[in-house]
Specification:
CATH architecture: 3-Layer(aba) Sandwich
Helix content: 40-55%
Shape: globular
CATH topology: Rossmann fold
CATH superfamily: Response regulator
Number of domains: 1
Strand content: 15-25%
Distance between the termini: 25 Å
Structural class: alpha/beta
Radius of gyration: 14 Å
CATH class: Alpha Beta
Number of helices: 5
Oligomer: single chain
Order of helices and strands: EHEHEHEHEH
Length: about 130
């Protein structure tokens, strides 16, 4: 079963995401970027990462920047969730190669579609690298 790492400091949001996603994927949750980085440093590897932007300790942008520049984690698709939308957020998502960006509140089917699209794109990338 594919693994989805959810990073959000809001416990109700983590619970909601877990409820929506766990019917189809294995879900791992982290309350902030440090917790997520610790989990990853233990040799764990999710298939998709879903992250909030506004979090304590290490914010979503710092996390995305660290992950996308990493040789180990750089090819893991990241979906950003945010309570607001702006041209700056959209521009940063493009700059960092974020797979998708959803504004809270989001439609659950749109979230599942974003995950599937990210997984399909990742599968296509690994085929390209092998061939």
């Amino acid at each position: 079963m594919k693994k989805i790492l959810i990073i959000d400091d809001s416990k109700p949001i983590r619970y909601l995401l877990d409820t929506i996603i766990s019917k189809y994927y294995q879900v791992i949750t982290a309350s902030d970027g440090y917790e997520a980085m610790y989990w990853l440093s233990q040799g764990n590897r999710p298939d998709v990462i879903i992250s909030d932007l506004q979090m304590p300790n290490i914010n979503g942008w710092d996390l995305v920047k660290n992950l996308t520049s990493s040789a180990v984690y750089g090819n893991i698709p990241i979906i950003i969730l945010s309570g607001s939308s702006s041209d700056e957020i959209t521009q940063k998502c493009e700059e960092y190669g974020v797979a998708d960006f959803l504004v809270k509140p989001f439609n659950p089917s749109r979230l599942l579609e974003a995950i599937k699209k990210a997984l399909d794109k990742k599968a296509g990338m690994s085929v390209d690298m092998q061939g």
